[in-house]
Amino acid sequence: MARVLMLKCVLCGRTYREREVDYTCPHCGMDGTLDVLYDYDEIKKHFTRECLEKSRDFTQWRYRDILPVNDETNIQPLEVGFTPLYDSGVLAREYGAKKVYIKDDGRNPTASLKDRASAVGVARALDYGKNTIACSSTGNAASSMAGFAAVAGLKSFIFVPESAPEAKVAQLLIYGATVVLVKGNYEDAFNLSTAAIYKFGWYNRNCGINPYLVEGKKTCGLEIAEQLGWEAPDRIFIAVGDGCCISGLYKAFYDLKALGFIDRMPKLVGVQAAGSSPIYHAFKYHLPKVEFVKPDTLADSIAVGAPRNWAKALRAVRQTAGDMVTVTDEEILEAMKELARKTGVFGEPAGVTGFAGFKKMAKERYIGMDERIAIVVTGNGLKDIASARKAVAKPILVEPDINELLKRICC
Ligand SMILES: Cc1ncc(COP(=O)(O)O)c(C=O)c1O
Ligand SMILES: N[C@@H](CCOP(=O)(O)O)C(=O)O
After folding, report:
1. Residue 403: inside a domain
2. Entry pTM
3. In a domain? residue 297
4. Protein residues with CB under 6 Å of any ligand 1 atom
5. Record-annotated residues binding pyridoxal 5'-phosphate (predicted)?
6. Engineering a disulfide at 372: which of 75, 99, 352, 382 sits with its beta carbon 3.0 to 4.6 angstroms away?
């Protein structure tokens, strides 16, 4: 387990010791999200590529030397991470790139990338001796937290918008969480959860303010680098809502560079839904901070008008000479179909938003023929069947009669 050297505010650069502050920088308030930094020179002495080659732990815990969990016994036995990275020759040929890799994070235990963070969040809640953990969510963070909390024997309280997809709510209830459906959007759920967490003293799993959660999400980037033989791809595309996942990718490559595992960072491309794109807007117009919007997109997981991790997300894009792009709901639905049909990977709307952004940039000729691209699919399509059904035609309904069938399927 890694000893955290310090927490550093992404806005003002002030540093804190591990338990000196709980969540964000006291000086900068909620916007002052913190980086978790380690003693890289010390870690380098025992954490090497050779050690990883010998490791038989094919979960995210193979990177425990750079994860902020203090007590190994607080790690739950669910197999999180080490999801497949598919090399899609079909997509590379179609879009004129050297390589296109699809990282299928819908293959995690509760079917989204959020498991990486929740696994760390639950371990930290146990480290702090808490018996209850809580979060606000559009559904995925919540279902993963509920799953890991259930295994750990922790109570969980979840705040989700009333409109959360049914499958995600079902996951929460099955895992035994107390589910509060909030009459409002994700921001309303976030504000209510923050007030309740403060009042009851629960552990706060909201990744937008809890610095340790992004550390869990970074394992997705660590895996991409390892699966590509410790060479960063040229660009990585990922959906952006609160901005935590893209911040996790940035931190992965930052850590790997600090440890000497890689020598250059990939360009990170954040993709937002056109109807909910405050971080894109701040990037495009060089604003010092984001302006909140009223979100409107069918990609519920990224319907985030008031993103909490905007500062880290903007840094991830700016510091890697990356980019941001927006896609419409129609482009998202089209991407959902195309990805499933060309690679077999079925993503939920936000899950395929990174792919939709890649398609758009490739069509506008921003992708070079010599580029190696990775695209993260952040959540499984079975999480939101209603949206998937919007992307496709209706099935054929027939009487059980071969003549009727022939009439219907032979033109
Ligand atoms: C499936 C899925 N994709 C993308 C995102 C966006 O991640 P972030 O909010 O960390 O930017 C989320 C959750 O927020 C999600 O659940
Ligand atoms: N859309 C996210 C929002 C919160 O997730 P977090 O991991 O960034 O806290 C979700 O899955 O609920």
Report:
1. no
2. 0.97
3. yes
4. 112, 114, 140, 239-245, 301-302, 304, 348, 350-351, 378-379
5. 140, 378
6. 99
